[in-house]
UniProtKB/TrEMBL annotation:
GO terms for molecular function: IMP cyclohydrolase activity. It catalyses: IMP + H2O = 5-formamido-1-(5-phospho-D-ribosyl)imidazole-4-carboxamide. The keyword Hydrolase applies. Its EC number is 3.5.4.10. InterPro entries: IMP_cyclohydrolase (IPR010191), IMP_cyclohydrolase-like (IPR020600), IMP_cyclohydrolase-like_sf (IPR036795). Belongs to the archaeal IMP cyclohydrolase family. Catalyzes the cyclization of 5-formylamidoimidazole-4-carboxamide ribonucleotide to IMP. One of its GO terms (biological process) is 'de novo' IMP biosynthetic process. It comes from Methanooceanicella nereidis. The gene is purO. This is IMP cyclohydrolase.
């Protein structure tokens, strides 16, 4: 099954985490990179690809001391800014997804997002037809995802991870078609660590 991009949240051994995978038919020539201590970006290997779509390069993960934000586009930064200003995660997600709306490409690609805080996890999606933002109950072993295509309602997945790098690798290896790269944030030492995986080199 091809689901496009997807975000995921979960809890393993008391640690909350969030992750992202790019799967792509049109722009497979991309990678995930830590651009600083707080940020993972999705980048094209050929900058010429940026002329074909405004939606293929963006900060996918940003971490704050108390939250990690993971998305499939340029909405990562405004969600982070609102949480940093004191908005509840639910409101930061809903306000930003509604304001930025689905992508105006040939597929009306949804914007998707995840937030994990010290003790809770949220998913969000805005499509051409509606918007949904929920806090999901995360007990040890729980994991939820939402994707741009096919799996556009919040659904349970079986996935456990022991670090950010482990999560990024396991997301890449999920059986959804056309994996390109993945990234993850994982609770560590009262904050979050970041991880990436760009496939077998
Ligand atoms: N976030 C991304 O990495 C991303 N990659 C591709 N898209 C959009 O989705 C469309 C379809 O891409 P694809 O056939 O690779 O699933 C692209 O033309 C582009 O408008 C993206 N937009 C949202 O997911």
């Amino acid at each position: 099954m091809y689901v496009g991009r997807f975000v995921i949240i979960g809890k393993t051994n008391g640690k909350l985490w969030a992750g992202y995978r790019v799967s792509s038919r049109s722009f497979p020539n991309r990678y995930a990179v830590r651009s600083n201590d707080m940020t993972v970006a999705i980048m094209p290997r050929d900058v010429k690809d940026l002329e074909k779509s405004p939606y293929i390069s963006y900060n996918t993960i940003k971490i704050l001391p108390t939250a990690a934000v993971v998305t499939n586009g340029s909405h990562t930064d405004p969600i982070v800014e609102k949480i940093a200003m004191g908005y509840p995660a639910r409101d930061a997600l809903a306000l930003t997804l509604l304001a930025m709306d689905y992508e105006k490409d040939a597929l009306n690609t949804p914007r998707i997002a995840a937030v994990v805080t010290k003790d809770s996890g949220f998913l969000g999606i805005v499509t051409k037809d509606g918007i949904s933002v929920s806090e999901l109950p995360l007990q040890d072993g729980d994991c939820y995802m939402v994707a741009t295509y096919e799996k556009t309602t919040f659904s349970k997945v079986t996935l456990e991870a022991t670090s950010a790098d482990d999560l990024a690798r396991k997301m890449y290896d999920l059986t959804f078609e056309k994996p390109v790269c993945s990234a993850a944030a994982y609770q560590k030492d009262g904050g979050f660590e970041l991880g990436t995986y760009n496939g077998p080199q």
